[in-house]
Design goal:
One of its GO terms (molecular function) is FAD binding. By secondary structure, the protein is an alpha+beta fold. It is built from 11 helices and 14 strands.
């Protein structure tokens, strides 16, 4: 089946087509859409692109940073102000994928991918989208829960919290093939400290459910406590609560449940 390519000068025009054409998909870096086309996905009849510079904008001067949906992982790795995001960005594929893959596209990446989104979930991100309903901001957790219904909307940008210190944000990807392999599990933790105690803990997991999720039981075990061995042990014991991993070629659901606590313990303890 022939596929029509439409290129627009701004994101509003592109969003209008996405919201009105069920067969339209947005082409950013192409790591998801082109793969689907090459594998014969007949549900895609129109490929939409936008030459809108706002989609490639980075705003990193305040307590919250904003990344345009078209920002690539290679660009993030080149920004000193985004050093806290370098580990998540570096964990995405190899150099060719990082040169093409985008922040917006990663939000739609299925398991065992979407690792950068795990970091954004831990950092309390907000997703700006535009569709037939106009433009609005959606908390990333809500966005991920309704991700399958977001195909008719265009992601414009993502904003997230800037950690106040290097120790406040931690990230770990467990993969069979490093650095470019699919994720066995991915973990990210944002642990702001106030008065020596954790205040506002967020733990995010990848490949432990159909989409990226927060480990809320582990967060409760950390909240208001000193990050010591006892607290870390309590969080590691609670981390599987509410998870629903699946079996795939990289690991079984049983294996993922067995190792996620081990890796959370290492992450929170600062072990490599």
């Amino acid at each position: 089946m022939a596929v029509t390519v439409k290129t627009f000068a701004n994101s509003a025009e592109a969003a209008a087509v996405l919201s009105s054409d069920r067969g339209a998909r947005y082409l950013g870096g192409g790591t998801l859409v082109m793969r689907a086309l090459n594998e014969g996905d007949v549900s895609i009849s129109t490929v939409v692109r936008a030459n809108d510079q706002a989609l490639a904008r980075i705003e990193a001067s305040g307590p919250r940073i904003t990344l345009g949906a078209g920002v690539t992982f290679a660009r993030i790795l080149g920004e000193r102000d985004l050093v806290f995001l370098h580990a998540p960005a570096r964990s995405i594929g190899g150099p060719a994928v990082r040169n093409m893959g985008t922040v917006g596209g990663n939000l739609f990446a299925p398991n065992p991918y979407g690792d950068f989104t795990v970091a954004l979930l831990a950092l309390d991100a907000t997703v700006a989208v535009q569709g037939g309903f106009g433009a609005r901001d959606i908390a990333i957790e809500e966005f991920l829960q309704s991700r399958e219904r977001q195909s008719g909307a265009l992601v414009l940008s993502v904003s997230c919290t800037r950690p106040t210190s290097a120790e406040a944000f931690r990230y770990r990807k467990v993969a069979r093939i490093k650095p470019k392999g699919g994720s066995v599990i991915t973990l990210a933790a944002h642990l702001p400290i106030s008065g020596g105690r954790i205040a506002g803990a967020r733990i995010a997991l990848g490949s432990m459910a159909p989409t990226q999720i927060r480990a809320k039981a582990a967060e409760r075990a950390l909240e208001g406590r000193i990050l010591d061995a006892a607290t870390i042990s309590a969080a590691a014991s609670a981390v599987t609560e509410g998870t629903s991993p699946s079996d795939n070629a990289l690991g079984s659901a049983w294996y993922r449940r067995e190792i996620v606590g081990v890796h959370l313990r290492r992450l929170l303890s600062g072990q490599e």
